[in-house]
Amino acid sequence: MKRPLRGDIAIAVVAAIAAAFQILIAYSASVSEEIPDPTVIAVAWLHAVISVLLIGVALYLRTNPLFCASATLVLLGVWSAASISVLPTNMGYPLALLLAPWALYCLARSHKVQQRAIIVVSVLAAIGSVISPFMWRLSDSGGIEYRSGEDRFTWLALHWITILALVLLGLRRKALEAARHDAIQRSREREHLRIASEIHDVLAHSLTLIRMQAAAGMFDEASAKASLETIHKVSGEGIAEVRMIVNALRSGNVDVPQTMRLHDVVERFREAGLYIDCEFDADTHGYSPIVQLALHRVLTETLTNALKHQGVGTRVTLRINELEDRIELRATSRVSANSGQRFASSGGFGLEGIKERCTALGGDFEFKLDQNTASTYAWLPKDPQ
């Protein structure tokens, strides 16, 4: 059995105080010479026993709402029936009655209980309100009598309105909690996609360079050592970038490593076989880390696709310009018509991730393919909101 919740413990303490008071009433009735009727004394002790049982019910009301709410209504029903059996003697209005509305509210807001069960218990509570202690009033003779006329229907309507309001309030609270839970789940799914996108961007870049260098080393023994050195360097940088991503996702702080400088990225792809004509009219070091990281991802994805799909020898024209409120990247990669290479893009996960990243920062990303020419355009705000 699950442990009781802190709020239920507090309510159970109040119920225990009420039970102690009820036991005191029963004991006083037992020793009093003014109450000769043993039935009244028996009912007083029955009320005391019910009060004690309600302590346990209150303790687990939110842990096991269906059973405890049903038990609350049954015990209070027995309480009322016992009070009716000694009419017109006034047995008072028990504090334990306040547990009934709380039980209905907890039942309605619980995700463990089906709506059909909530309706059934609520209807039974509405029917049981006919014998609620509040349906009696003090008579002129000092006893109590059942309410009559408009007074009866007014109090009955108050019971039903209270039951309906509590159930609707509980259902609304449950709906809000469900919506919040769904929002958290969607946020986690987006975070998983973000992690996958980050890892894809890093590994696609690093593995493409490693593959090209490995192929060069296999077919040219003279360049094998240089290829291995490049593979060692690129793999180390890839590991560093993956660690950076993990740390950033854990802490929420982005720390751009030196290996992610744009000029270094261009040089690595030149070493891998791309002919890159680049012009940087922007000092990206002054930008926020998240913009630097996004710009790095756009550049690496663009050059990775050119090397991967258009091959070694592809000519790339690259321009990065700083405007008043944004930074723009334009890239065009092409191969000769007789080279036999084609850009076999599948609309990949990387391109989609890059577009989502740019859009999330308030920028945009476009990719166009025309036979042997691929064009990329991206812009990012200097100060994303």
Automatic annotation (TrEMBL):
An example Gene Ontology CC term for this record: membrane
Enzyme class at the top of the EC tree: transferase
EC number, UniProt record: 2.7.13.3
Alphabetical UniProt keywords: ATP-binding, Kinase, Membrane, Nucleotide-binding, Phosphoprotein, Transferase, Transmembrane, Transmembrane helix, Two-component regulatory system
Reaction equation(s) it catalyzes: ATP + protein L-histidine = ADP + protein N-phospho-L-histidine
Top-level taxonomic group: Bacteria
Positions of transmembrane segments: 9-29, 41-61, 66-85, 91-108, 117-138, 153-171
Domain Signal transduction histidine kinase subgroup 3 dimerisation and phosphoacceptor residue range list: 192-252
A Pfam family it matches: HisKA_3
The protein's name in its UniProt record: histidine kinase
Annotated InterPro entries: HATPase_C_sf, Sensor_HK_TwoCompSys, Sig_transdc_His_kin_sub3_dim/P
PANTHER family: NITRATE/NITRITE SENSOR PROTEIN NARX-RELATED, NITRATE_NITRITE SENSOR PROTEIN NARQ
